[in-house]
Amino acid sequence: MPKRPTDHPADAASARNSSPASTPARPILPPSPDTPTPLLGNLTPSQFMRRYWQKKPLLIRQAIPNVEAPLSREEFFELADQDEVEARLITHFRNKWQLEHGPFAPDELPSVKQRAWTLLVQGVDLYDDRTRALLDRFRFVPDARLDDLMISYASDGGGVGPHFDSYDVFLLQVKGKRRWRISAQKDLTLQPGLPLKVLQHFEAEEEWLLEPGDMLYLPPHIAHDGVAEGECMTCSIGFRAPSAGELTAQFLYHLAERGDSAARPDALYRDPQQPAVDRPAELPAALIERVGSILAGVKWSEQDIASFLGTYLSEPKPSVVFDPPQRPLNEARFISQASKSGIRLDRKTNLLYNRRFFFVNGEETPFNGAKKWLFDLADHRCLSAKRFVTLSDDSSVTALLHEWYCAGWIQVGELA
Ligand code: SIN
Ligand code: CO
């Protein structure tokens, strides 16, 4: 389904402060690069990345045996009723495609007995620890590329029509059955005048019926059509792929905000040689030339690019609001508590790093040797009590972590 957060409306409603009841789930570590895993049909992540990633589709039977839908149908419908959640309802009644945006109260949804409708909720990992845990299984791909987990519920015959996406996706069947048909066709012309992207011509080349636990990986631009056979739920683990245009615009904005990359950022435009004119509306050629040389003086380094990417890619989605603790522990009590029960990143926190900086939720923090432990926190999304104790003497570390705790970016305690 062609919707990824690069398309998120900038004005998305602000998030609520609490999540639906969910049983925290212990984080499931992704398989290590050279260990064969059922998740990838007994390939190692390294083999999968070499042979399939961005290259060709792969059907994996029983990628997650005995998988359970992370949310029940009722919990899912409740989620779609929340203001800040991005929900869409797609119906295909009497051969007509229609799209509506949520929130949807339960009585605004068609009956589950009615055929051919589907409800999609984007970014479910932000609202529920079980879904976040499912997304974490795919962290053999860098976090910088990982986007979100979308869940779709479909009544019998429901789907979003034949289409293509511009990003990689793993389509994991978690409840009921869905028939997927795919094609590497070159003709990606869309039907005009529809509220959603539906291909004008679709000629399936391969077809499979997916059952709970089965998964289909699709690289960008493979045409696909998934139709529910009986009611079903599908989790779609999607990746982000910003366009060159978006990256360029955002990078230039980042440079301008920093204000230190232009050769002489405060140099004023001057034109002592400007002659009097009889065509005042004409843009002076000398002006264009002069501005050209100012722009040619804009310089950036590899660190500017890393710093842009780290802050840009760790920026939370527009709808995200963190939940700071209502009665935060002071620093001493925080340290004593974390030394007993460890800490974990909030499920909404993005923490990336490179050789010189950490990027947490869109902010850049330089680090010194003492902060090396942050690598572990970033890679595992938690620090055990034992590990925390080893750093609790370093007040620069504990002060930073306490700040993050007060902001709701990390929580005390490992997941159950
Ligand atoms: C997709 O085609 O990308 C997912 C659509 C769905 O889950 O219905
Ligand atoms: Co799709």
Automatic annotation (TrEMBL):
Native species: Paraburkholderia madseniana
Pfam families associated with the record: JmjC_2, WHD_ROXA
InterPro entries (UniProt xref): JmjC_dom (IPR003347), NO66-like (IPR039994), ROXA-like_wH (IPR046799)
Superkingdom: Bacteria
Biased composition (Pro residues): 27-36
PANTHER family per the UniProt record, alphabetical: MINA53 MYC INDUCED NUCLEAR ANTIGEN, RIBOSOMAL OXYGENASE 1
UniProtKB keywords: Dioxygenase, Iron, Metal-binding, Oxidoreductase
UniProt-annotated stretches for the region Disordered: 1-40
Protein name: Cupin domain-containing protein
GO MF, any single term: metal ion binding
Annotated JmjC domain residues: 130-256
